[in-house]
Protein backbone atom coordinates (compact mmCIF):
# COMPACT_ATOMS: atom_id res chain seq x y z
CA UNK A 1 0.00 0.00 0.00
CA UNK A 2 1.11 3.50 -0.67
CA UNK A 3 1.93 6.13 1.90
CA UNK A 4 0.11 9.44 2.47
CA UNK A 5 2.95 11.79 1.52
CA UNK A 6 2.13 15.42 2.30
CA UNK A 7 2.08 17.78 -0.69
CA UNK A 8 3.77 20.56 1.27
CA UNK A 9 6.78 18.25 1.74
CA UNK A 10 7.29 17.47 -1.96
CA UNK A 11 10.78 18.31 -3.22
CA UNK A 12 12.47 18.77 -6.59
CA UNK A 13 15.01 16.09 -5.70
CA UNK A 14 15.35 13.26 -3.23
CA UNK A 15 13.54 9.91 -3.31
CA UNK A 16 10.82 9.55 -5.98
CA UNK A 17 7.09 9.34 -5.24
CA UNK A 18 4.71 7.70 -7.72
CA UNK A 19 1.24 9.24 -7.85
CA UNK A 20 -1.73 7.96 -9.86
CA UNK A 21 -1.32 11.02 -12.13
CA UNK A 22 2.18 9.81 -13.07
CA UNK A 23 0.82 6.65 -14.74
CA UNK A 24 0.28 6.93 -18.50
CA UNK A 25 -0.41 3.99 -20.81
CA UNK A 26 0.55 1.55 -18.05
CA UNK A 27 3.98 3.14 -17.61
CA UNK A 28 5.51 5.64 -15.22
CA UNK A 29 5.88 9.12 -16.69
CA UNK A 30 8.99 10.13 -14.78
CA UNK A 31 9.02 13.70 -16.15
CA UNK A 32 6.56 14.96 -13.53
CA UNK A 33 7.53 12.83 -10.56
CA UNK A 34 7.82 14.57 -7.23
CA UNK A 35 10.34 13.68 -4.56
CA UNK A 36 10.69 13.67 -0.80
CA UNK A 37 13.43 14.01 1.77
CA UNK A 38 13.54 10.89 3.98
CA UNK A 39 14.25 13.08 7.02
CA UNK A 40 10.71 14.49 6.63
CA UNK A 41 9.33 11.04 7.46
CA UNK A 42 11.19 9.54 10.44
CA UNK A 43 8.91 6.50 10.68
CA UNK A 44 9.54 3.47 8.50
CA UNK A 45 7.76 3.85 5.15
CA UNK A 46 9.55 1.02 3.34
CA UNK A 47 6.16 -0.71 2.97
CA UNK A 48 5.42 1.84 0.21
CA UNK A 49 8.61 1.06 -1.76
CA UNK A 50 8.42 -0.85 -5.03
CA UNK A 51 11.38 -2.18 -6.95
CA UNK A 52 12.25 -2.27 -10.61
CA UNK A 53 9.87 -4.68 -12.35
CA UNK A 54 7.12 -4.48 -9.73
CA UNK A 55 3.48 -4.11 -10.77
CA UNK A 56 1.14 -1.59 -9.16
CA UNK A 57 -2.58 -0.79 -9.29
CA UNK A 58 -4.58 2.29 -8.32
CA UNK A 59 -7.40 1.68 -5.87
CA UNK A 60 -8.79 5.20 -5.41
CA UNK A 61 -8.99 8.19 -7.72
CA UNK A 62 -8.67 6.83 -11.22
CA UNK A 63 -9.41 3.26 -10.18
CA UNK A 64 -7.83 0.21 -11.77
CA UNK A 65 -4.88 1.90 -13.47
CA UNK A 66 -2.22 -0.77 -13.86
CA UNK A 67 1.48 -0.10 -14.27
CA UNK A 68 4.88 -1.70 -14.23
CA UNK A 69 7.99 -0.07 -12.76
CA UNK A 70 10.19 0.03 -15.84
CA UNK A 71 12.32 2.88 -14.51
CA UNK A 72 15.88 2.19 -13.42
CA UNK A 73 15.19 2.75 -9.73
CA UNK A 74 12.94 1.84 -6.86
CA UNK A 75 10.10 4.26 -6.20
CA UNK A 76 7.69 5.00 -3.36
CA UNK A 77 3.95 4.61 -3.89
CA UNK A 78 1.67 7.42 -2.79
CA UNK A 79 -1.58 6.58 -1.03
CA UNK A 80 -4.06 5.31 -3.63
CA UNK A 81 -1.68 2.75 -5.13
CA UNK A 82 -0.69 -0.75 -4.08
CA UNK A 83 1.93 -3.18 -5.34
CA UNK A 84 1.36 -6.72 -6.61
CA UNK A 85 4.27 -9.04 -5.92
CA UNK A 86 3.39 -12.51 -7.25
CA UNK A 87 5.01 -15.77 -6.28
CA UNK A 88 7.08 -16.12 -9.44
CA UNK A 89 7.27 -19.89 -9.05
CA UNK A 90 3.56 -19.86 -9.94
CA UNK A 91 2.86 -16.60 -11.72
CA UNK A 92 5.04 -14.70 -14.18
CA UNK A 93 4.98 -10.92 -13.54
CA UNK A 94 4.59 -10.07 -17.22
CA UNK A 95 1.69 -12.52 -17.54
CA UNK A 96 0.00 -10.95 -14.49
CA UNK A 97 0.56 -7.46 -15.90
CA UNK A 98 -1.06 -8.35 -19.23
CA UNK A 99 -3.88 -10.22 -17.49
CA UNK A 100 -4.68 -7.12 -15.43
CA UNK A 101 -4.65 -4.85 -18.49
CA UNK A 102 -6.92 -7.21 -20.43
CA UNK A 103 -9.37 -7.84 -17.57
CA UNK A 104 -10.42 -4.37 -16.52
CA UNK A 105 -14.05 -5.50 -16.22
CA UNK A 106 -13.00 -8.01 -13.55
CA UNK A 107 -11.08 -5.30 -11.72
CA UNK A 108 -14.12 -3.02 -11.97
CA UNK A 109 -16.24 -5.77 -10.39
CA UNK A 110 -14.30 -5.18 -7.16
CA UNK A 111 -15.39 -1.54 -6.87
CA UNK A 112 -17.40 -0.47 -3.85
CA UNK A 113 -18.28 2.84 -2.28
CA UNK A 114 -21.05 5.25 -1.68
CA UNK A 115 -22.08 7.98 -4.11
CA UNK A 116 -19.33 9.68 -6.04
CA UNK A 117 -16.45 8.12 -4.11
CA UNK A 118 -15.97 4.55 -5.30
CA UNK A 119 -12.82 2.61 -4.50
CA UNK A 120 -11.37 -0.77 -5.28
CA UNK A 121 -12.08 -3.25 -2.46
CA UNK A 122 -8.69 -4.88 -2.01
CA UNK A 123 -10.17 -7.94 -0.27
CA UNK A 124 -12.44 -8.56 -3.28
CA UNK A 125 -9.49 -7.86 -5.60
CA UNK A 126 -7.41 -10.54 -3.85
CA UNK A 127 -10.17 -13.04 -4.60
CA UNK A 128 -10.14 -12.47 -8.37
CA UNK A 129 -9.61 -15.73 -10.20
CA UNK A 130 -6.80 -15.64 -12.73
CA UNK A 131 -6.72 -18.26 -15.45
CA UNK A 132 -3.27 -19.75 -14.90
CA UNK A 133 -1.58 -21.74 -17.63
CA UNK A 134 1.69 -23.52 -16.88
CA UNK A 135 4.68 -21.31 -16.11
CA UNK A 136 6.30 -22.25 -19.43
CA UNK A 137 3.14 -21.10 -21.24
CA UNK A 138 3.09 -17.89 -19.19
CA UNK A 139 6.69 -17.26 -20.22
CA UNK A 140 5.96 -17.71 -23.92
CA UNK A 141 5.56 -14.50 -25.91
CA UNK A 142 2.41 -15.61 -27.75
CA UNK A 143 0.32 -15.89 -24.57
CA UNK A 144 0.79 -12.22 -23.69
TrEMBL record:
Record keywords, A-Z: DNA-binding, Restriction system
Keyword Iron-sulfur: no
Annotated Pfam families: Methylase_S
Gene Ontology process terms (BP): DNA restriction-modification system
A molecular function (GO) term: DNA binding
Domain Type I restriction modification DNA specificity, first and last residues per copy: 4-139
Family according to the record: Belongs to the type-I restriction system S methylase family.
Record-given protein name: Type I restriction modification DNA specificity domain-containing protein
Species assigned in the record: Candidatus Mycoplasma haematobovis
Classification lineage: Bacteria, Bacillati, Mycoplasmatota, Mollicutes, Mycoplasmataceae
Amino acid sequence: MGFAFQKNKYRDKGLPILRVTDIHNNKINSEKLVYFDPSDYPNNIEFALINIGDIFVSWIGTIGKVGWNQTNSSIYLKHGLFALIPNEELLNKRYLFHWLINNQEKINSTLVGVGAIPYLDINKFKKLIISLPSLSEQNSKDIR
